[in-house]
Amino acid sequence: MELGTSEPVVAEEDRLRADCYALLARLLAAPPTGELIELVRSIRSAPGTPLGRAFGNLATTWRQATPSSLKDEYSVLFIGVTHGELIPYLSYYLTGFLHEKPLADLRGDMQRLGIGRRADASDPEDHIAALCEMMAGLITGAFGMPAPLAEQRRFFDRHIGCWAPRFFENLQAAKAASFYMPVGAIGDAFMNVETEAFAMAA
Fold first, then answer.
1. Residue 152: alpha-carbon gap to chain centroid
2. CA of 178: how far to CAs of 6, 10, 61, 65, 196, in Å?
3. Fold that domain 12-29+67-201 belongs to in CATH
4. Burial 170-196 (b: 16+ CB within 10 A, else e)
5. Distance (Å, rounded) from C-alpha 23 to C-alpha 20?
6. What is the pLDDT of residue 133?
7. Rounded Cα gap, residues 191 and 196, in angstroms
8. 128 confidence band (pLDDT: 50, 70, 90)
9. Cα–Cα separations (whole angstroms), residue 161 to 84, 106, 181
10. Cα dihedral angle (25, 177, 160, 35), rounded to 10 degrees?
11. Is residue 138 within 8 Å of residue 1, measured between CB atoms?
């Protein structure tokens, strides 16, 4: 998604939320580059919570991987010959088909919120990586000012919370998932944190 240039002040807890969404977006958008691999390997474990343990497991697992093995696993999981083992799109999870009403609803909210489609994007906007990137931008104000918490919750409920937990559970259980299993665990734990936090703030 096209990001703006403003740098509004964001609370530390919200910056951490945005960082988690942004990392998930990078991990799920394309086969990992050397820079991303080194970033993941440098993550330190924080065993006190399921999310912290999942991050530590990801770093440990990726230290045993090679760039080619990560690229191959990503391809099998998300690309394949016609499609990968998983189809990481909002429309597919909610309707069983791509390019359906959930995508149209998302595009309506994107227009309302001032979120533009990337000029170089080839996937529909309802790819899980794009949605995580959008959520990060709403938190940090990348599309203008940071979105109010109620707006963040609305976007989350309509476009992420209604299907991403199932996607991350499926990623953990996918036959081809080895190095990406901890990515599913991070997503699963983080979705639980976000859902509980939004409920408490209501």
1. 15
2. 38, 35, 8, 10, 28
3. TorD-like (1.10.3480)
4. bbbebebbebbbbbbbbbbbbbeebbe
5. 5
6. 97
7. 9
8. very high
9. 22, 13, 20
10. -10
11. no
Which phi and psi (to 5°) does residue 127 adopt? -65, 145
The answer to whether the CB of 103 falls within 8 A of the CB of 96 is no
Q: Please, which residues have CB within 8 angstroms of residue 49's CB and are 6 or more apart in sequence?
A: 189
Residue 34 CB neighbours (<10 A): 8
Cα–Cα nearest to 105, from 90, 121, 123: 90
Residue 1: which pLDDT band, with cuts at 50, 70 and 90? low
* Rounded distance between C-alpha atoms, residue 62 and residue 152, angstroms: 31
Q: Which pLDDT band, with edges at 50, 70 and 90, does 172 fall under? A: very high
Q: What is the DSSP string of the chain?
A: -B--S------HHHHHHHHHHHHHHHHHHSSPPHHHHHHHHTPPP-TTSHHHHHHHHHHHHHHT--HHHHHHHHHHHHT-SSS-SS--BHHHHHHSSSSSHHHHHHHHHHHHHTPBPPTT--S-TTBHHHHHHHHHHHHHTTTSSPPPHHHHHHHHHHHTTTTHHHHHHHHHH-TT-STTHHHHHHHHHHHHHHHHHHHHH-
The answer to whether residues 100 and 133 touch, using CB atoms and an 8 Å cutoff, is no
Structure tokens at 36: 């991303």
pTM of the entire predicted model: 0.94
